[in-house]
Amino acid sequence: MAEGKVWVRKNREKPLRQGHPWLFSGAIARAEAAQDGELVAVYDSRDRFLARGYWNSKSQIPVRILSWRDDAIDSAWWRAMLKQAIARRVLPAGDTACRLVNAENDYLPGLIVDRYGDWLVLQALTRAIDARKEQIAAALLALTGIPNIYERSDVEVRQREGLGESAGVLRGDEPPATIEIKQAGMRYLVDIRHGHKTGFYLDQRDNRRLLRELAAGCGTGARLLNLFSYTGGFAIAAGCQHAVNVDSAYSALQLAEANTALNKIPTASAEFIQADVFDYLRHCVGVGERFDMVVLDPPKFAAHRRQIQRAARGYKDLNLNAFRLVKAGGWLMTFSCSGAISRDLFQKIVFGALVDARRRAQVIRQLGAASDHPVALTFPEGEYLKGLLLRVD
Fold this sequence. Notes:
CATH topology of the largest domain: Rossmann fold
Largest sheet: 7 strands, mixed
CATH superfamily of the largest domain: Vaccinia Virus protein VP39
Helix content: 25-40%
Order of helices and strands: EHEEEEEHEEEHHEEEEHEHEHEHEHEHEE
CATH class of the largest domain: Alpha Beta
CATH architecture of the largest domain: 3-Layer(aba) Sandwich
Oligomer: single chain
Radius of gyration: 22 Å
């Protein structure tokens, strides 16, 4: 199939020249022979080559850039790019799970690959990646030697590409109900077929390790409130004498309980509460509860700019009541994984919650995703996970 061509409007090529991987529809002057899911060469208004990427007329981002050089995008290119991404991952000693490919941040837009022991989980987020997933799976098998590859492309973002959800075996066997992984000295059971994202929040690895250090300094009897706990990752890493895990999903709490037992944490040290976190926080404030540490790791509230206002209200409500529950001298670890919420805006929201709670707090550390989730310097949108470690007085 002949390669399509796309021309950028005059004076709209600067982001591409600076290495940004997205070309929005408003910056496109015209396109010729461009087929959805296929490669296109991108030119400026004076017919000078800018980049090569793939096209989807159904997307608000019609072109996603693969290369800024006039190279052939063939099977050898895909293999070389996958090899480069995988080679850059350095697993901490003893860890058996990490992200291997981080989409645009590894210059492979639309592709996520996570490793869980002897399994790889692939997400094809765009039409072009979806069309090439078999080819990519074959390359991953050859590069890693990992025989089992499972697809988890059952995500809402595919609708914007004109795609439905897709999940199932790409290579190897059907995965078991749970797969055991090791991360930061802890053991976790992961459900790669039905769990959030690809099964586990791998991006919080370094923050869980940090929480463990903080918990050790809190002394015996320390209490942790783990909100939106999912399968208990933060509570298990902290190893507190008492941890309360709160989540709305019963299945997640069941796995959290199994993970607690797997790490030989005494049953009396952990609680698992199925509840709406907003309601539970208000309940705790009403009855005068206090905790040495609170972790607030909610799901994505704002995927688009039009959702920012509503998301900001949600974040403020959560943090306001979280501040009210932290003991003087205690810790609040608070996060946003909403791509539409910038780090600066998130800190302003948390500041507003602090003022309304009439507490004082110090920012001890800015938090983000683990090192296996790099962010390309030319793609600030890739920094989706923002967090603050706060000491509260």
